[in-house]
Amino acid sequence: MREVAVIGIGLTKFGELWDTPLRDLFAMAAADCLEDAGVGRDQVQSAYIGCMTSGMFVAQEHLASILTDYAGLKGIAATRVESACASGGAAFRAAYLEVASGASDFVLAGGVEKMNDGADATACLAAAADQEYEVFHGVTFPGLYAMIAQAHMAKYGTTPEQMAAVAVKNHDNGARNPKAQFQMEITKDTVLNAVRVAEPLGLFDCSPVTDGGACVLLAPVEVARKLGKPIVKIIGSGHATDTIALHDREDFASIPVVGLAAQRAFQQAGIGIKDVDFAEVHDCFTISEIVCTEELGIFERGKGGPAAEAGETALDGSFPVNTSGGLKSKGHPVGATGIAQICEVYAQLTGRAGDRQLKNPRRGLAQNMGGSGGSCTVHILEVES
Amino acid sequence: MHGIVGYGAYVPRFRIKAEDIANQWGADADAFKKGLLLEEKTVPGPDEDTITISVAAARDAVTRAGIDPQLIGACYIGSESHPYAVKPSGTVLIDALGIGPDCHVADFEFACKAGTEAMYVAYSHVKSGEMEYALGIGADTSQGAPGDALEYTASAGGSAFIMGSEGVVAEILHTYSFTSDTPDFWRREGEFYPRHAGRFTGEPAYFHHVLSSCRGILERSGMKPADFKYAVFHMPNGKFPLRAGKAMGFRKEQLEQGWVVNLMGNTYSGSSPTGLAACLDEAEPGDHILVTSFGSGAGSDSFILRATDRLPEVQGLAPKVRDQLADRRIHLDYGKYVAYRGKIRMNEV
Amino acid sequence: MITPRYHREIPQRYRLEAGKCAACGEIHFPPRAVCRKCGGREMETVALPRRGKVVTHTTVWIPPAPFEGQKPYVNAVVELENGVKLTCMVAEAPPDEVKIGTEVELVFRRLQHEPVWEVIQYGYKARVVKV
């Protein structure tokens, strides 16, 4: 397999973008990305686009055609990739494999979701759970993660205050991200006293409903070198699935699919979590950031909550997590999230992260998860010094 | 010997107190409680209806009967609150309990008498030898218009009876029915709440039919009130059944066990069947029980039963009526009550 | 959920019918065409026990539209006596009545109605067993 690099990124503003339709969200991100890479649109051979459920949100399927056309890429090979909220990560992996295989040199990995167009977002998102044996019984996504939280609290003593610390930290970071949906700092009391969504999760424990698009362009490392780009290599790509239904798993205080995907990525990279400097993790809910940091091995099991509360995951902490603001503050346009995470890792590794820039990070990790842990991708990127 | 081989009753967990209804309408709570002899009534949860109540009661009836549900040859649910105007309730019931598909199923409706109707037809099937077992159920999630006197009483619950000739717990000795066209209470197609003719529902309707039916069955059986341990009369409110019993010469002690209305309200088709279930919960072998239902429109069915030696063996196999009435009640306020009863208009899904 | 789909699942929703792998004995709820443990294709029908205990739970305050009239309600994962786990609502329970380990039984309740044709859909819910 050839070595593959990310050579450009493009990200729309995240938020309630009432005046921007689905097709333009992708077109804008793709155009920004190609401009950033300095690659002409006629050079792009193929695209993989993550989108979770445009069929339910805006009744539009057959996305590969409409989106590439509106991005000025009519004619290229294009595929829509769906793996619930991990659609972006799965699209990135597909694009990575196509370049690594030698089949194509310039492949676009994109993600997009238009969630604010009048549909019942709770019902649309619930399609990522087992429709007949979870959703039929009134289960919502906050409800599923709330049940993970209850189990984690019971097993490890994790507290609402620790979960609140995740939200506060991510808002601190998001306040420094001009693309973020919520560019505002919040206090722990705001989180703890918020309207209840699903016990023990309140409104500020939950990521928002967001419109947004994201794209990255991949090319062989050798081609990137010729173009004179900073070399940000994909050194590990892990992908795993688990049961779609939470109840079919053994331990609700864990999300095993994350550990499994991470293990595969680390194995390919030949490194461990100690060799990674920061991570974008899938904080669709505050509890999920805590559990994912444990699954990734950043902290021991049961220590994710105390670590968050102690500031270990802050910009100046021992292992910064979600420097972008995460899904919580940056926003969570579900299909775009996995790609937006790669954008942040790339920005940090190339020194382009502005007010939230880490000091000379070398390796960053992006972990993107579908459903209540039914699918996950983990990617590790390394910048050549 | 033919009669009941298994029975079960279901009482929802939710309640509303009579004074909370009275306070809503600025009425004199004490006057209503005294006038109706009623403390509170049951309220079905938002996930309960005649079908779920029937399934719960019938499941306990199967447990007490100790039979293979496949042997039940007919299922009848009597109710005036079948969830569908067109589509049977009984089909859901048989698929939930694993009865059939070789089974005769029908829904009955005759105001508050539909339950005893279902029991009567089920009993006739086994008596004729047409089938081994037949199931008759009376269940309702009764409606009363907001502010109407009926609102104090219209409640939810029901009881199920499996009839058979093997393993009888209460033998049915006599039956009698008394019927005439008497429009005291009705609901036209498409109307949400039933209407009633005020005091006309009393003497010409309830008392005329209940007392005539009761006299008829006593005459046929040659029995007198003193021969019975228990007597149950349909319970539209607390007062009517006690007055009817007294008029027939029954003593208070004979009426008390089946008189569940003060804590349960009027469960319409489930009313006298649940009174009977409460008596079966406590009856001893050889005890005689008289039951007389009433359905507006109007008619009464009467049954005379005698408890067998097997009854005490099954009484403890499922929850008793009075335990359910006392157990873990959740009292709703008026707002929650009308929401649960679908009396406020929500957005369509 | 459209009516044909609901009708197909009546054995599971009404009677808790599970599939037991004829080769290895693994019990699947809902039944599966292929055994998750051994890959076996032959299944026999078995009914699940109705008793179990709560493994985890939540109180849902912001429900999807079909459940609006029941909010707040309790959802739980219940582990039945034979080890099979399923997700359901806990009927009529005040939230503080349900804890990890709470004993429940499965009862038959009305779950929702099909949005287009308004067919009422029934199924199982848990109910706290009297302590």
Question: Any overview of this molecule?
Answer:
The complex is a heterotrimer of chains A (385), B (349) and C (131). Chain A contains 14 helices and 11 strands. With 385 residues, chain A is α/β, with parallel strands linked by helices. Chain A folds into 2 domains: 4-120 and 209-227, 3-Layer(aba) Sandwich (Peroxisomal Thiolase, Chain A, domain 1), CATH 3.40.47; 138-199 and 235-383, Peroxisomal Thiolase, Chain A, domain 1 (3-Layer(aba) Sandwich). In chain A, the strands form 2 sheets. In chain A, strands 3-2-4-7-1-8-11-10-9 form a 9-stranded mixed beta sheet, sandwiched between helices. A two-stranded antiparallel sheet of chain A has the order 5-6. Chain B has a 9-stranded mixed beta sheet with strand order 5-4-6-7-1-8-13-12-11, sandwiched between helices. In chain B, strands 3-2-14 form a 3-stranded mixed beta sheet. Chain B has a two-stranded antiparallel sheet with strand order 9-10. By secondary structure, chain B is of the alpha/beta class. The longest helix of chain B has 20 residues, at 202-221. Chain B contains 13 helices and 14 strands. With 131 residues, chain C is mainly beta. Chain C is built from 2 helices and 8 strands; from the N terminus they run H-H-E-E-E-E-E-E-E-E. The termini of chain C are far apart. The chains are: A alpha/beta (385), B alpha/beta (349), C mainly beta (131). Chains in contact: A-C, B-C.
Helicity of chain B, in percent? 25-40%
Across the major sheet of chain A, the strand order is 3-2-4-7-1-8-11-10-9
Total discrete domains of chain B: 2
Q: How many domains in all of chain A?
A: 2
Corresponding CATH architecture of the largest domain in chain B = 3-Layer(aba) Sandwich
CATH architecture of the largest domain in chain A: 3-Layer(aba) Sandwich
H/E topology pattern of chain B: EEHHEHEHEHEEEEEHEHHHHEEHHEH
The radius of gyration computed from the alpha-carbon positions of chain A, rounded to a whole number of angstroms, is 19 Å
* Class by alpha and beta content of chain B: alpha/beta
Q: Within the CATH hierarchy, at the fold level, what is the topology of the largest domain in chain A?
A: Peroxisomal Thiolase, Chain A, domain 1
Overall geometry of chain A comes to globular
List the uncertain runs of chain B: none
CATH superfamily of the largest domain in chain B: Thiolase/Chalcone synthase
Oligomerization state: heterotrimer
**Average pLDDT for all residues of chain A:** 97
% residues in beta strands of chain A: 15-25%
Largest sheet of chain B: 9 strands, mixed
What is the tally of helical segments of chain A? 14
Low-confidence stretches of chain A: none
Structural class of chain A: alpha/beta
Largest sheet of chain A: 9 strands, mixed
